[in-house]
Amino acid sequence: MNVLILGSGGREHALAWKLAQSPLLQQLYIAPGNAGTALAGTNAAINCNDFAALADFVLTHKIEMVVVGPEVPLVDGIRDYFDNHQKLREVLLVGPSAAGARLEGSKDFAKQFMQRHRIPTAAYAAFGKGETTEACQYLRKLKPPYVLKADGLAAGKGVVITEDYQEACQSLRQMLDEDVFGKAGHRVVIEEFLKGIEVSMFVLTDGKSYLLLPEAKDYKRIGEGDTGKNTGGMGAVSPVSFARGEFMQRVQQQIIQPTIEGLRVENILYQGFIFFGIINVDGSPYVIEYNCRLGDPEAEVVIPRIKSDLAGLLWALRDQSLHRHILQVDERHAASVFLVCGGYPDAYEKGKIITGLETVRESLVFHAGTLRRGNDIVTSGGRVLAVTSLAATTAEALKLSYKNIDKIGFDKKYCRKDVGRDLLPFEG
Ligand code: AMP
Ligand code: GLY
Predict the structure, then answer these.
(1) Which atom of ligand 2 is nearest to the CA of 232?
(2) Does the pTM of the predicted model rise above 0.85?
(3) Class for the domain spanning 197-423
(4) 8 A C-beta contact, residue 320 and residue 206
(5) Ligand 1 centroid – CA 365 distance (Å)
(6) Strand, helix or coil for residue 251
(7) CATH top-level class of 2-95
């Protein structure tokens, strides 16, 4: 089959790397892709939010399956666009309808959905434009830290957590009155603060049944010891030692199954990946957030641990036959460390030549912010490369990634040295 992947990050390179290994695959395209995806397939210079241009490409290249990496096209209704387009109806688009993508596109919707289906999550209240005073009064009743979330998509920047009441009110004013996140902040969710360790869980669902993919933990802050600014992700590991036994039973019974069932009974078309951001509060799982896609950098450890033919599993969404499949998982541990440009997540320079990629042997290198320029591969974003390794333990996988990172060079290269370290004492 001919497949088109949408997106241009490390997640999409990992998807391309995996799908390229499928016996079902004929041609693989990535729009717009990066220098790494071009090693697995053919890049097409199309913006993944330009549905009309994508439709043309799908028809001319006889694409049978489109796999959507990022959230924006899904929240904007690419699945509905394909389903309503007479010539595209036969194409399988892996991803939820706009109604399903609201689980990520509207925090208020997600919270209401969880309440309707009794899915454990932090207590909350939501406020709209013109309700800043009421929102600040509500905050008075809560104990700090205060958790505020812009309702809509804000590229990972829409969450404010602060101990300070004045700062919380100021953030509310910025979102509700001063439009810092545009429309995304015209409604704000205020949540109870939950204390615990986070884990990212993923399922693939055809709308009836689901397969639980390997779990992962990501490292979001720029600095070691989880300090400094938030980033798009500095690394990830899988498996996560506490995600087993009774905790996982609870996750499946209290969170995953009621989510799939809730979508079904509400007639919300959902065929694709669901990302559950879960926090472990003294052994009880709570949902922090839903995403309507795979995570990044989590995909760079989750996908390499999938042994089954992913193209075959995705194709099963077409006739809702996922229940006939099982997921084979590589028992080895995966660790991925991101190389970023010095300065990121603030200002940084682009166009730096990357050296040593061809010398990496024992790790997988997934490209994110890279571009081919003549014979060179150069940096084109803040997060540049994810170096993933598989080994018997997380410690060994990390060692391999750091060893291979030393072989890769570019001006002002930076990575966190402590990815996965917090989990090592629990590895046993
Ligand atoms: P979100 O975009 O909803 O995933 O929030 C970003 C990050 O903020 C999460 O990964 C958590 O680390 C933190 N966070 C969000 N909601 C809460 C909460 N209710 N309690 C504690 N931490 C939270
Ligand atoms: N790693 C979190 C995300 O993809 O949103």
Answers:
(1) 1
(2) yes
(3) alpha beta
(4) yes
(5) 29
(6) helix
(7) alpha beta
